[in-house]
């Protein structure tokens, strides 16, 4: 038996030879989830990819792979919160996720599912500090870095067409709220609606209205009241919050119902100012809406006035007082690490660097903006991109309040906006219901983040 066993050894070695010399298995691709869709229009897969809203971020991931050799598997989904929660609950989260809701970051810190980044990102790098989101881990008081802001969107902007039929929409940008009200009344006599209103957006319709109310409260009552409200410490029934709703309703004509904002998507409403004749004149939207305008103009050239290409511009949301210091509402996309690995760390370090920001800017047509304090507005070409960058570099920046609120509070806010637009007489009962949700939400679920001084 021993002889037979020994006789088998050469055979086994020969059989094992090819396997022993085979290439090692390829490592698993790094999984990344974000809210940018990969759906685009085009005849080829490559063309559709380049025309998708995810393309600028995908270009950054391609640059990362080219530099490191690490492959990335990207999933774009409108409902990042739901997809991420499902993955975490099943024990299969992505390695890295880009979160559009800041309160989700806190929720995953509290549950212990998010890894800190203190030893991942170079905190002493010039300009990086405003991009770092610090929160205390469970059972601790000292905050740690759990998020890296990779994209910021200016939200206190009002858009208009500069060359509409019948003459300019805006001859001089309103410097105060009273001037904005006067402009609205003047536009009401020109046919069409003064404001382009669209509340639709899957999976959470209503957020364009919450942006309005947040912006008005911030400019009308100041950042202290705004931050208290975002942190659950200011009653919805308070005069300040109620007044913001009423100012919005009076400005946009809540309850008139024509055109119906409840049935119109936000990215469909705004292009109404670009058609001939215009169906509306002013659009309160974040800096990312430029992509929707450009896409509409490219896909519907027949909707423009013959021989006259529509042009558009913006002015910042006006102050309620002539001497008020500039303040802007912003939203962010923040990266979090859900699996601690050398590959995930490498990606986050790459996203924290100027090469990634440069690729993102160029791939987006110079419409990707950052909180990085070392990024000069001169990095953007003259015109609209540089003006947006300068807007973000002047004045105090306060984060989107509903992004900081617990999910249940935000959902109730979205719903209340839609009901209020349909019937403004419901305001009193809606605010009481919102306060009821606020009081039922445990204090530890709220996220209170301070406003930021200008990145520059």
TrEMBL record:
Pfam family membership, one: SBP_bac_1
InterPro entries: Bact_solute-bd_prot1, SBP
Keyword Transport assigned: yes
Keywords: Signal, Transport
Gene3D superfamilies, per database record: Periplasmic binding protein-like II (3.40.190.10)
Keyword Signal: yes
Signal peptide: 1-22
Family named by the database record: Belongs to the bacterial solute-binding protein 1 family.
Protein name (Swiss-Prot/TrEMBL): Carbohydrate ABC transporter substrate-binding protein, CUT1 family
Originating species: Micromonospora haikouensis
């Amino acid at each position: 038996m021993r002889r037979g066993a020994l006789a088998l050894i050469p055979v086994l070695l020969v059989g094992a030879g090819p396997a022993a010399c085979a290439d090692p298995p390829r490592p698993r691709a790094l999984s990344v989830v974000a809210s940018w869709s990969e759906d685009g229009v085009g005849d080829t897969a490559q063309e559709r990819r380049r025309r998708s809203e995810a393309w600028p971020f995908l270009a950054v991931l391609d640059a990362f792979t080219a530099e490191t050799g690490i492959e990335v598997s990207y999933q774009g989904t409108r409902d990042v919160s739901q997809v991420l929660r499902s993955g975490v609950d099943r024990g299969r989260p992505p390695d890295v996720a880009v979160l559009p809701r800041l309160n989700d970051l806190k929720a995953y810190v509290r549950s212990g599912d998010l890894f800190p980044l203190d030893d991942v990102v170079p905190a002493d790098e010039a300009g990086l500090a405003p991009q770092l989101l610090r929160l205390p881990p469970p059972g601790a008081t000292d905050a740690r870095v759990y998020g890296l802001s990779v994209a910021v969107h200016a939200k206190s902007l009002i858009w208009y067409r500069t060359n509409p039929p019948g003459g300019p929409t805006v001859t001089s940008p309103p410097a105060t709220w009273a001037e904005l009200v006067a402009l609205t009344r003047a536009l009401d006599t020109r046919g069409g609606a003064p404001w382009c209103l669209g509340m639709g957006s899957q999976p959470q319709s209503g957020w364009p209205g919450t942006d309005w109310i947040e912006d008005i409260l911030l400019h009308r009552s100041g950042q202290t009241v705004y931050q208290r409200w975002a942190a659950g410490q200011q009653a919805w029934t308070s005069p300040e919050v109620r007044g913001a709703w009423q100012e919005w309703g009076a400005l946009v004509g809540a309850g008139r119902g024509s055109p119906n904002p409840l049935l119109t998507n936000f990215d469909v409403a705004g292009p109404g100012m670009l058609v001939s004749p215009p169906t509306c004149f002013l659009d309160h939207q974040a800096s990312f809406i430029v992509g929707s305008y450009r896409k509409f103009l490219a896909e519907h050239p027949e909707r423009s006035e013959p021989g006259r290409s529509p042009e558009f511009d913006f002015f910042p949301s006006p102050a309620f007082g002539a001497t008020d210091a500039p303040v802007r509402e912003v939203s962010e996309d923040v990266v979090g690490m859900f699996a601690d690995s050398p590959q995930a760390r490498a990606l986050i370090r790459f996203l924290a660097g100027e090469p990634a920001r440069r690729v993102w800017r160029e791939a987006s047509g110079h419409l990707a903006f950052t909180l990085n304090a070392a990024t000069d507005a001169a990095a953007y070409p003259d015109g609209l991109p540089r003006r947006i960058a300068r807007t973000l570099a002047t004045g105090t920046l306060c984060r989107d309040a509903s992004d900081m609120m617990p999910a249940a509070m935000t959902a109730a806010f979205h719903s209340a906006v839609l009901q209020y637009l349909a019937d403004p007489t419901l305001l009193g009962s809606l605010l009481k219901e919102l306060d009821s949700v606020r009081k039922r939400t445990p204090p530890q679920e709220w996220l209170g983040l301070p406003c930021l001084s200008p990145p520059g």
